[in-house]
Specification:
By secondary structure, the chain is of the alpha/beta class. It folds into three domains: 143 residues; 87 residues; 125 residues, Rossmann fold, CATH 3.40.50. It contains eight helices and seven strands; from the N terminus they run H-H-H-E-E-H-E-H-E-H-E-H-E-H-E. The protein has a five-stranded parallel β-sheet with strand order 3-2-4-5-6, with helices on both faces. Strands 1-7 form a two-stranded antiparallel ribbon. Helix 1 runs antiparallel to helix 2. InterPro entries: CheY-like_superfamily, Sig_transdc_resp-reg_receiver, ST_Response_Regulator.
């Protein structure tokens, strides 16, 4: 943009320079025309003086006697002829001066026309070059945006794949742990059953003679089995407690709330309200900006308006639900219309809030989303 402005200013300065050059040449032409006019006037005055001088000489020559009248008449005729010759020469000089002035004016007009044509061609070339550079910059910016969008999409896909792999691994580990605990419990039951059967067999073999000793041994074995069962139960409880202690609830200052609304007033109001509860807040003025922020860091709650330029709240919610990484993200939608329930439910909105919305309902929905998240201790 700055380079384009510089080129425009340069073209404007070049046009001003050409105009000033033309104006200077026009002024020079006018000066030359005025000088030629003054020269013609001077020649006319000189001619008039020559005629007056000839007439004066003729009058002086008419005063002598008749004897010299013929000679004076001849001299007057000679002087008149000389004056006529000088007048013809001066007229020729004037015509030559006028012709040279006209030729000079035509030459200057041609030079002025050529200068204007050269300036016009230079301006057209400069405009074409500026347009080509602007087109090249626009193409480069478009390619850069496309590359950034592809990289963001790839990064989002990688994050989604990693999250899905972690979820599958956790499910497999939990299933294997449950199967192991079930097998361990079955083994303990089998051992207890075998111990009871062994005690019963020993009691039947020794009959009455060893009845008391067998009973004591059976009691001891039963007590040992109970102790082993209790020990195993304590181990299972300890394992479950350790698993529960490995995670904790998400703190309020760790909870990221993304607000997508094209109204600056609403964004400022919500950010101040959420800041009073120590929530982290990210602000987006369009659906496209909200998707870009979610690609960089996944929020825990999304608050969106219905009507926004470009991607509106419904389309934003559908794209959030379509992505595996954000499919379960709580979405709170704010609208001033009462007929948006069906469209919001179809898009996958978690809760619809009216305008003016209840701050208590909004904070309660965010708290429910926060308490549902478990993080590593």
């Amino acid at each position: 943009m700055n380079e384009l402005l510089i080129w425009i200013l340069g073209a404007a300065l070049a046009a001003v320079f050409v105009w000033l050059l033309w104006l200077g040449r026009r002024r020079q032409q006018r000066v030359r025309e005025a000088s030629a006019h003054r020269e013609a006037q001077r020649l006319a005055l000189e001619q008039a003086e020559h005629v007056a001088r000839a007439q004066r000489l003729a009058a002086e020559m008419a005063a002598p006697a008749e004897a010299g009248e013929r000679e004076a008449q001849q001299q007057a005729e000679q002087q008149a002829a000389q004056a006529a010759q000088r007048e013809a020469e001066e007229a020729q000089v004037r015509r030559q001066a006028e012709r040279r002035a006209q030729e000079e004016a035509e030459r200057q007009a041609r030079e002025e026309l050529e200068a204007r044509e050269a300036a016009r061609r230079a301006e057209e070339a400069e405009a074409a070059r500026a347009a080509a550079e602007a087109s090249a910059r626009a193409e480069a910016e478009r390619r850069a945006r496309e590359q950034a969008e592809r990289e963001a999409a790839e990064e989002a896909a990688r994050q989604a794949a990693a999250a899905e792999a972690a979820r599958i691994a956790a499910e497999i580990e939990a299933r294997e742990r449950a199967e192991w605990e079930a097998a361990r419990a079955a083994e303990l039951d089998r051992l207890a059953a075998e111990a009871a059967a062994r005690a019963e067999a020993e009691r039947l073999a020794r009959e009455r003679a060893e009845q008391e000793a067998a009973a004591q041994r059976a009691a001891a074995e039963a007590a040992a089995a109970r102790g082993e069962a209790e020990r195993l139960a304590r181990e299972r409880a300890a394992q479950q407690a350790a698993a529960a202690a490995a995670t904790r609830e998400l703190r309020a200052d760790e909870t990221l709330v993304l607000v997508a609304d094209d109204s600056k007033i609403v964004r400022v109001k919500l950010s101040r309200l959420l800041a009073t509860k120590s929530y982290r807040v990210a602000l987006a003025e369009s659906g496209e900006q909200a998707l870009a922020l979610m690609a960089a860091e996944r929020p825990h709650v999304l608050i969106t308006d219905v009507e926004m330029p470009g991607i509106d709240g419904f389309e934003l919610t559908r794209q959030v639900r379509a992505a595996a990484a954000t499919a379960a993200l709580p979405v709170l939608m704010i609208t001033s219309s009462d007929d948006k329930q069906e469209a919001a439910a179809a898009a996958g909105v978690t809760q619809l809030l009216g305008k003016p919305f209840s701050e208590g309902a909004l904070l309660a929905a965010i708290e429910r989303a926060r308490l549902a998240v478990r993080v590593a201790a």
